[in-house]
Amino acid sequence: MTLHITGDAAADRLLTDDPLALLIGMLLDQQVAMETAFAGPLKISERAGTLDAAAIATFDPDAFVELFKATPAVHRFPGSMAARVQALCAAVDQDWGGSAAAIWTTPVAEHAEAPDGATVLKRLKALPGFGEQKAKIFLALLGKQYGFTGDGWREASAPYGEDDSFRSVADIVSPESLTKVREHKRALKAAAKEKTG
Question: Which residues of the chain are modeled with pLDDT < 70?
Fold first, then answer.
Protein backbone atom coordinates (compact mmCIF):
# COMPACT_ATOMS: atom_id res chain seq x y z
CA MET A 1 0.00 0.00 0.00
CA THR A 2 1.30 3.43 -0.98
CA LEU A 3 -0.61 6.65 -0.60
CA HIS A 4 -0.70 9.07 -3.56
CA ILE A 5 -1.86 12.36 -2.10
CA THR A 6 0.82 15.01 -2.65
CA GLY A 7 2.32 14.26 -6.06
CA ASP A 8 5.70 14.13 -4.29
CA ALA A 9 7.09 10.60 -3.91
CA ALA A 10 9.09 11.35 -0.73
CA ALA A 11 6.16 13.12 0.98
CA ASP A 12 3.76 10.30 0.01
CA ARG A 13 6.23 7.67 1.25
CA LEU A 14 6.41 9.37 4.67
CA LEU A 15 2.59 9.50 4.88
CA THR A 16 2.45 5.81 3.98
CA ASP A 17 5.15 4.73 6.43
CA ASP A 18 4.48 7.01 9.39
CA PRO A 19 0.97 7.17 10.93
CA LEU A 20 1.88 10.38 12.80
CA ALA A 21 2.81 12.04 9.50
CA LEU A 22 -0.62 11.11 8.12
CA LEU A 23 -2.37 12.47 11.23
CA ILE A 24 -0.41 15.75 11.03
CA GLY A 25 -1.17 16.04 7.30
CA MET A 26 -4.88 15.72 8.06
CA LEU A 27 -4.61 18.36 10.79
CA LEU A 28 -2.90 20.77 8.36
CA ASP A 29 -5.58 20.18 5.70
CA GLN A 30 -7.49 23.43 6.07
CA GLN A 31 -7.25 26.70 4.18
CA VAL A 32 -4.46 25.33 1.95
CA ALA A 33 -4.41 22.92 -0.99
CA MET A 34 -4.56 19.25 0.06
CA GLU A 35 -1.17 18.56 -1.51
CA THR A 36 0.39 21.41 0.47
CA ALA A 37 -1.15 20.19 3.73
CA PHE A 38 -0.07 16.57 3.30
CA ALA A 39 3.43 17.58 2.14
CA GLY A 40 3.77 19.45 5.45
CA PRO A 41 4.91 16.49 7.57
CA LEU A 42 7.95 15.91 5.31
CA LYS A 43 8.96 19.59 5.63
CA ILE A 44 8.52 19.40 9.42
CA SER A 45 10.51 16.17 9.60
CA GLU A 46 13.38 17.55 7.51
CA ARG A 47 13.52 20.88 9.34
CA ALA A 48 13.00 19.57 12.88
CA GLY A 49 15.18 16.51 12.29
CA THR A 50 12.44 14.27 13.69
CA LEU A 51 8.80 13.31 13.46
CA ASP A 52 8.61 11.90 16.98
CA ALA A 53 5.49 12.96 18.90
CA ALA A 54 7.30 13.70 22.19
CA ALA A 55 10.13 15.57 20.46
CA ILE A 56 7.71 17.78 18.51
CA ALA A 57 5.48 18.36 21.54
CA THR A 58 8.47 19.68 23.52
CA PHE A 59 10.14 21.55 20.62
CA ASP A 60 10.75 25.23 21.41
CA PRO A 61 7.46 26.85 20.27
CA ASP A 62 9.10 29.94 18.73
CA ALA A 63 11.63 27.83 16.85
CA PHE A 64 8.81 25.56 15.69
CA VAL A 65 6.90 28.53 14.25
CA GLU A 66 10.09 29.65 12.42
CA LEU A 67 10.41 26.16 10.98
CA PHE A 68 6.82 26.52 9.67
CA LYS A 69 7.62 29.91 8.11
CA ALA A 70 10.76 28.79 6.22
CA THR A 71 10.30 28.74 2.44
CA PRO A 72 8.37 26.88 1.18
CA ALA A 73 6.07 27.44 4.17
CA VAL A 74 4.46 24.45 5.86
CA HIS A 75 1.14 26.35 6.08
CA ARG A 76 -0.18 29.82 5.30
CA PHE A 77 -1.00 30.29 9.01
CA PRO A 78 2.33 29.25 10.56
CA GLY A 79 1.71 30.49 14.10
CA SER A 80 -1.65 28.88 14.77
CA MET A 81 -0.92 25.69 12.83
CA ALA A 82 2.49 25.14 14.47
CA ALA A 83 0.77 25.40 17.87
CA ARG A 84 -1.92 22.94 16.74
CA VAL A 85 0.65 20.42 15.53
CA GLN A 86 2.45 20.64 18.88
CA ALA A 87 -0.85 20.18 20.77
CA LEU A 88 -1.70 17.16 18.59
CA CYS A 89 1.73 15.61 19.18
CA ALA A 90 1.42 16.21 22.94
CA ALA A 91 -1.93 14.36 22.92
CA VAL A 92 -0.48 11.46 20.90
CA ASP A 93 2.48 11.29 23.30
CA GLN A 94 0.45 11.48 26.51
CA ASP A 95 -2.69 9.56 25.56
CA TRP A 96 -1.31 7.02 23.07
CA GLY A 97 2.25 6.38 24.21
CA GLY A 98 3.66 8.35 21.30
CA SER A 99 2.06 6.05 18.72
CA ALA A 100 -0.48 7.64 16.37
CA ALA A 101 -1.44 4.19 15.06
CA ALA A 102 -2.51 3.19 18.59
CA ILE A 103 -5.56 5.45 18.08
CA TRP A 104 -6.98 2.97 15.58
CA THR A 105 -5.27 -0.26 16.69
CA THR A 106 -5.57 -0.35 20.50
CA PRO A 107 -8.46 -2.59 21.63
CA VAL A 108 -11.12 -1.07 23.87
CA ALA A 109 -10.41 -3.70 26.55
CA GLU A 110 -7.79 -6.33 27.19
CA HIS A 111 -8.28 -9.43 25.00
CA ALA A 112 -10.80 -7.53 22.85
CA GLU A 113 -10.74 -7.23 19.08
CA ALA A 114 -9.44 -4.13 17.33
CA PRO A 115 -11.65 -1.07 17.97
CA ASP A 116 -14.70 -0.50 15.79
CA GLY A 117 -15.30 2.51 13.57
CA ALA A 118 -17.42 4.39 16.13
CA THR A 119 -14.70 4.01 18.78
CA VAL A 120 -11.98 5.26 16.46
CA LEU A 121 -14.16 8.21 15.40
CA LYS A 122 -14.65 9.11 19.07
CA ARG A 123 -10.89 8.88 19.70
CA LEU A 124 -10.11 11.06 16.68
CA LYS A 125 -12.66 13.70 17.75
CA ALA A 126 -10.92 13.87 21.14
CA LEU A 127 -7.68 15.01 19.46
CA PRO A 128 -6.81 18.72 19.36
CA GLY A 129 -7.80 20.21 16.00
CA PHE A 130 -10.05 17.31 14.97
CA GLY A 131 -13.73 18.20 14.73
CA GLU A 132 -16.49 15.90 13.51
CA GLN A 133 -15.82 16.47 9.80
CA LYS A 134 -12.03 16.07 9.95
CA ALA A 135 -12.36 12.96 12.15
CA LYS A 136 -14.83 11.36 9.70
CA ILE A 137 -12.61 12.11 6.69
CA PHE A 138 -9.57 10.67 8.47
CA LEU A 139 -11.51 7.55 9.48
CA ALA A 140 -12.58 7.11 5.83
CA LEU A 141 -8.95 7.50 4.77
CA LEU A 142 -7.91 4.79 7.26
CA GLY A 143 -10.63 2.44 5.99
CA LYS A 144 -10.24 3.08 2.28
CA GLN A 145 -6.47 3.29 2.00
CA TYR A 146 -4.70 2.45 5.26
CA GLY A 147 -5.96 -1.06 5.98
CA PHE A 148 -8.26 -0.25 8.90
CA THR A 149 -11.03 -2.87 9.00
CA GLY A 150 -12.83 -2.08 12.27
CA ASP A 151 -16.56 -2.90 12.24
CA GLY A 152 -18.80 -0.11 11.04
CA TRP A 153 -16.07 2.22 9.83
CA ARG A 154 -18.04 3.12 6.70
CA GLU A 155 -21.12 4.05 8.72
CA ALA A 156 -19.08 5.98 11.31
CA SER A 157 -17.29 7.95 8.60
CA ALA A 158 -20.43 8.62 6.50
CA PRO A 159 -20.72 10.08 3.95
CA TYR A 160 -16.94 9.93 3.35
CA GLY A 161 -16.76 6.15 3.68
CA GLU A 162 -19.06 5.52 0.72
CA ASP A 163 -17.58 3.44 -2.09
CA ASP A 164 -16.83 5.22 -5.36
CA SER A 165 -17.36 8.68 -3.94
CA PHE A 166 -14.91 11.50 -4.57
CA ARG A 167 -15.58 13.69 -1.56
CA SER A 168 -12.27 13.98 0.25
CA VAL A 169 -8.60 13.08 0.58
CA ALA A 170 -9.79 9.56 1.49
CA ASP A 171 -10.62 9.05 -2.20
CA ILE A 172 -7.37 10.30 -3.73
CA VAL A 173 -5.42 7.43 -5.25
CA SER A 174 -4.27 9.04 -8.52
CA PRO A 175 -4.10 12.38 -10.36
CA GLU A 176 -7.52 11.57 -11.90
CA SER A 177 -9.17 10.99 -8.53
CA LEU A 178 -7.58 14.19 -7.20
CA THR A 179 -9.24 16.09 -10.05
CA LYS A 180 -12.61 14.50 -9.21
CA VAL A 181 -12.29 15.42 -5.53
CA ARG A 182 -11.40 19.01 -6.49
CA GLU A 183 -14.47 19.17 -8.77
CA HIS A 184 -16.68 17.89 -5.94
CA LYS A 185 -15.29 20.52 -3.53
CA ARG A 186 -15.75 23.28 -6.12
CA ALA A 187 -19.37 22.22 -6.68
CA LEU A 188 -20.03 22.29 -2.91
CA LYS A 189 -18.52 25.78 -2.61
CA ALA A 190 -20.58 27.03 -5.55
CA ALA A 191 -23.76 25.58 -4.04
CA ALA A 192 -22.99 27.15 -0.65
CA LYS A 193 -22.34 30.52 -2.32
CA GLU A 194 -25.63 30.28 -4.19
CA LYS A 195 -27.47 29.60 -0.92
CA THR A 196 -25.96 32.60 0.85
CA GLY A 197 -25.95 34.81 -2.28
Answer: 197
